[in-house]
Every structure is written in C-alpha cells, then in structure tokens.
Amino acid sequence: MRGRALPRRPAVHLTELGFGAAQGGNLYRATTDEEFATAVDTAWEAGLRYYDTAPHYGLGLSERRLGAALRTRPRDEYVVSTKVGRLLVPSPQGAHRRDPEGFDVAARHRRVWDFSRDGVLRSLESSLERTGLDRVDIVYLHDPDEHWEQAATEAVPALVELRDQGVVRAIGAGMNQSHLLTRFVQETDVDVVMCAGRYTLLEQGALADLLPAAESRGVGVVIAGVYNSGLLSRDQPPADATYNYQQAPPELIARARRIAAVCESYGVTLPQAALAFVRSHPAVVSTVVGLRSGAQVAQTLTRSAADVPAELWPALRTAGLLGPAADQEQR
After folding, report:
1. Which residues are identified as catalytic?
2. How many CA atoms lie within 13 A of 242 on its CB side?
3. Pairing of strands 220-224, 284-290
4. Which ranges of 15-170 does DSSP label H, i.e. alpha helix?
5. Is the pTM here over 0.85, yes or no?
6. pLDDT tens track, the chain, 331 positions
7. All residues at 6 or more sequence positions from 325 whose CB lies less than 8 Å from its CB, including other chains
8. Which residues pair with 109 in a beta bridge?
9. Quick one: the chain helix, strand, coil %, rounded to 5?
10. Which long-range contacts (CB under 8 A, 24 or more apart) does 291-296 make?
C-alpha cells in the first residue's frame, strides 16, 4: 500500500490508510477477540502498516487487543501510535457498571486527566505493558482541549525528551478541533498531528488554519473521523445518521444527501469520495479509519481503491457543497 513519510521524521512511514483501533475497545458495542484479530489479519494482508490506539479506547482493551494481534509480526514493518493524557486509575467499585464514555466494557478503571511530565511517562509505561510491545512509534497528546498550558509546557517537553532519547520516534497531538492543533504546530516541536472530523467532505474548517500551518512547518497531518462519525459512512445517509457522536441535525443530513447525489452522478459513492477527498491535501500523510471486523476492513479497502474522477470536486463546488479553497487536485 502506498504511503508517506513524516516530513520531519522520514524514517517514520505511514501507509495512506491507517487502522483505527477504537472499535477494538468495544466502541458502542462489544467486539470479540476473534473478530478484532481477524480485522488486523485482513488489514495486514492488504498492506496496512499503520495502527492507532489509545488507553481511552475501552479502558485499555484496545491496546491489549492490538498488541496481541501485532506482537508476532516483524516489529520494524509497522508503525503504532498511542496517546497520553488520560491515566487509567483502578476503580473496583465500578466493576458492576458499564463504562459511561461509550465503550461496552466494565468500568473497572476511571480516566484521570494528566498532562504532567510524570503523567506522560506513567501513561506510556502502562501502554507498553498493555500492548506487550517493545516500543510505540508515535505518541499523541489525547484531547488536551482544556489543558493547553500543561500540555504545551510539560507534556510536549517530556515527549521531546523521549523522542531525543530514541524511546519514541515521533510526537504530536490528536484532537477534534483544528484551532489548538494549529497552536501545537506553530508553537511547539511536534512532528505530526491527528485531526478528527474537521477536515472532511462535509466540512473543511482545518483549511483555514491547521493545514496551511502544517504544510509550511513540515508537520504531517493524520486525518481521522473522515465520515464525521457516521454521517458520510453510507451511500445514502439515513435519517438516524450520527454526527460528532450524536444524532445528526436535519440540515446536515440534507447536505450530506446532496453531496451523495452529486457523487452518484459521477459514478462514485459518498464514502468513496469522502476517503479520496481528504487524501488530496499535500499536508495529509495518512487517513485513519475505525475498523472492527475483516468484512469492514475489506469494505474500506474497496472504498479507498475507488477511482474518483477529478471533475467531482469542481462539480461539488459549483453546487455550493465545497468551498473554493477545498477544491484541490488529487495526487
């Protein structure tokens, strides 16, 4: 599978499609060990070599499952990213409850925000224990929206130290917004950022700040949430489609359906166009898609391989469904 190296860290090469392992943490519903292992096997056979996880995903379940699925594979042949900022603290009294943050797991731990140097080191050490891997390649600060000061002045320097020591190969931040990610790019020594949901076929807010800043500073951008948490994931968006992890408002569903109609007139589906569109920006080094099963991996690979005509983008612009700056030539 094609891929790109991080501009500042050319030894870190990401395939253009990355495996998002949140579903391996039972996001929204339970997934079996076998189902997730088959998903990783299918992705590996297809050439995917970038895998993303986090302690937050299923209170560590995603990291344990992903580590188990990758442990026997040649370590130098794949890239793993995880995240820091949420420590998992034992909470035995929650064993009879389900996790309140969207993962179908027992709430035997609780999440505690911590972007201190000690918190970063403890989090990474725990992630290595859960995965059973000798290292992770990329470490992101996970959703530091309300913690800019500590994240910028304590967490980033701690990650820089780990990178300089060779413990990790690249550092960055992952968020569901573009404004603070832009500040990380402009004001700190990060190599890559993960932007979820703010640069998609539906909305392109990151074009105003993050993407030009990243391109000028040589910082790679990984796009997540390419389907806006569900709204763009089907050929025809249903009335109960989700957006930003909630019920999508009617006006956004109507807009997505208009986009789907234009895509259909050019012989492609809405999800195919959604994947192709985000890859067209030169700052984007990979697109991470959440994957749960072998069938889902196969479907995503088919979508990703679709031949999307370049004429689609100006047609969407003419229809008022893409801003002028979003109409780019595909690589």
Report:
1. 57
2. 9
3. parallel
4. 33-46, 61-70, 117-131, 148-150, 156-164
5. yes
6. 899 999 999 999 999 999 999 999 999 999 999 999 999 999 999 999 999 999 999 999 999 999 999 999 999 999 999 999 999 999 999 999 999 999 999 999 999 999 999 999 999 999 999 999 999 999 999 999 999 999 999 999 999 999 999 999 999 999 999 999 999 999 999 999 999 999 999 999 999 999 999 999 999 999 999 999 999 999 999 999 999 989 999 999 999 999 999 999 999 999 999 999 999 899 999 999 999 999 999 999 999 999 999 999 999 999 999 986 544 444 3
7. 204, 207, 208
8. 90
9. 40, 20, 40
10. 291/19, 291/20, 291/21, 291/23, 291/39, 291/43, 292/23, 292/24, 292/31, 292/35, 292/36, 292/39, 293/31, 293/35, 293/36, 293/38, 293/39, 294/35, 294/38, 294/39, 294/41, 294/42, 296/39
Distance CA 278, CA 294 (A): 24
Residue 122 class from Cβ within 10 Å (0-12 exposed, 13-18 middle, 19+ buried)? middle
User: CA nearest 269: which of 321, 232, 322, 297?
Assistant: 232
Cβ atoms of residues 144 and 173 within 8 Å: yes
